[in-house]
Design goal:
Layout: H1 3-46, E1 50-56, H2 65-75, H3 85-91, E2 98-105, E3 108-116, H4 120-130, E4 135-139, E5 155-164, H5 191-198, E6 205-214, H6 218-230, H7 243-256, H8 281-294, E7 298-310, H9 317-326, E8 337-339, H10 355-371, E9 388-391, H11 392-398
Antiparallel strand pairs: 1-3, 1-4, 2-3, 2-6, 5-7, 5-8, 6-7, 7-9
């Protein structure tokens, strides 16, 4: 082998070794940076000070879910309008979220909101503006009264996160479809769920959780694109051009000015008009429903439901009642809820091997996710969290103080409102 060829081979091998070395260095730096950012995010979340507020509304509640929709619209004020990259790198900052919870047990059905303490004033003012007679009290987190880990030797659970079956801009059935002109012909969207939660006995519990995080405009733009697609409108094309293109157009206009009128950005000839598409009734209803949904503020939502009971009394009939209560929000033509397979506590959804151990691990992780109010984080390979976009109207459908005509026997309500003493009340010295 000639010295030149030998030298060339050694040089190439040196370049290969250098490339591998650089690739390893860059890979290590990327892994370390990713680990550092996630560590800061987890530290930021861990340092959030949470409080639990119990929401109590008088039994004579004549407010519809429309009032609660206004509350959720106000709660969209937690949105940061975009977290800066330096805030993520330095502080691990993430978008804040709030947990709206309904808890059913033998003691009754109660409404809670678990929130970062800094949003307490926002929540109270939002409720008082729509429900003047509401009482909001800070209480101990009810999850502290349950064992640290479930399932265990005494308790078992079944649960899952519900996600939308279609894209987030398709709406579910909302409270407006349940309301009539008169109270006696109205129904409440939460009536089936209240009834299911009111029939619990002993140690049975149904826990429903809505983790809401204010969403930006990206989901709205997808909805607008879908409406344009249904209407047969062409996709918008971005105008492209640079300095050379503009100068060339100027020169062309200068030369042809005595002959034709100058034009910019293309041929002066009129473009062929798009034929008008006539929408059938289904397309009209779909486009209108999407337009109504994206016209209201949206939230990235995790919708979680868990049923807990002692092992010896675990009643699967309650699971059927719970599932049926949630089906009232589904529609055949627009959107519906389905179980998120990454959270469903079923042996058929945890893999083909070690099913018993995997199912136990998934149940415990789902309980932990509820207890710690975990949002979209992959905390383990057996539990993958997914969120859906729900607007203020849809959230109000799922979470609102029931109207007075809902006769759930164990619904916890105020029998009397606390009041201030009269101004002329005599007092002793």
């Amino acid at each position: 082998m000639s010295p030149i060829v030998s030298s060339l081979i050694h040089s190439l091998l040196g370049l290969v070794d250098l490339g591998i070395f650089l690739a390893l260095v860059f890979g290590a730096v990327a892994i370390y940076t990713d680990w550092l950012i996630h560590s800061k995010i987890h530290r930021y979340i861990h340092n959030i000070k949470w409080i639990t507020l119990e929401i109590r509304v008088p039994s004579a509640n004549f407010k519809s879910a429309k009032a609660m929709e206004q509350v959720f619209t106000s709660l969209h004020g937690i949105y940061s309008f975009g977290i800066k990259p330096e805030e993520v790198y330095k502080e691990g900052k993430v978008e804040d979220w709030i947990s709206c919870e309904i808890v059913g047990s033998a003691d009754g059905v109660k409404f809670y909101i678990t929130t970062p303490s800094k949003f307490r004033n926002l929540i109270e003012s939002s409720f008082f503006s729509q429900y003047p007679d509401v009482e909001i009290e800070e209480v101990e987190d009810y999850m502290k009264h349950l064992p640290e880990v479930i399932p265990n030797g005494d308790y078992d659970l079944f649960g899952q996160d519900y996600i939308l079956a279609r894209d987030g801009f398709y709406p579910i059935r909302t409270y407006q479809e349940f309301e009539g002109i008169k109270e006696e012909v109205s129904t409440d969207s939460l009536a089936p769920l209240m009834e299911a939660m009111s029939n619990l006995k002993g140690e049975e519990r149904i826990l429903m959780q809505l983790l809401i995080k204010a969403a930006g405009d990206s989901w709205k733009k997808k909805g607008e694109a879908e409406i344009a697609k249904i209407a047969g409108q062409p996709k918008k094309e971005e105008k492209k051009g640079d300095v050379l293109t503009s100068s060339g157009q100027f020169t062309k206009n200068l030369i042809l000015a005595p002959i034709i009128y100058p034009t910019w950005g293309g041929s002066p000839e009129k473009k062929a008009e798009q034929p008008v598409k006539f929408l059938n009734p289904y397309e009209q209803n779909t486009a209108k429903a999407i337009a109504v949904k994206i016209g209201k503020v949206g939230f990235e939502t995790i919708f979680r439901v868990i049923y807990i009971d002692k092992k010896e009394g675990f009643n699967k009939a309650n699971l059927s009642a719970l599932s049926g209560a949630l089906r009232v929000f589904n529609t055949q033509d627009l959107n519906s809820f389905r179980p998120g397979n990454g959270t469903l506590t079923s042996s058929s959804k945890v893999g083909r091997t070690f099913k018993k151990q995997r199912l136990l691990e998934r149940k415990r992780l789902l309980f932990r996710a509820y207890k710690e109010r975990l949002v979209k984080l992959q905390i383990h390979q057996y539990l993958h969290l997914q969120d859906s976009v729900l607007n203020a109207e849809e959230l109000a459908t799922l979470y609102h103080p029931p109207a007075s005509f809902v006769q759930a026997p164990r619904l916890t309500q105020l029998e009397a409102k606390k009041g201030t003493p009269p101004m002329n009340l005599p007092v002793s010295e």
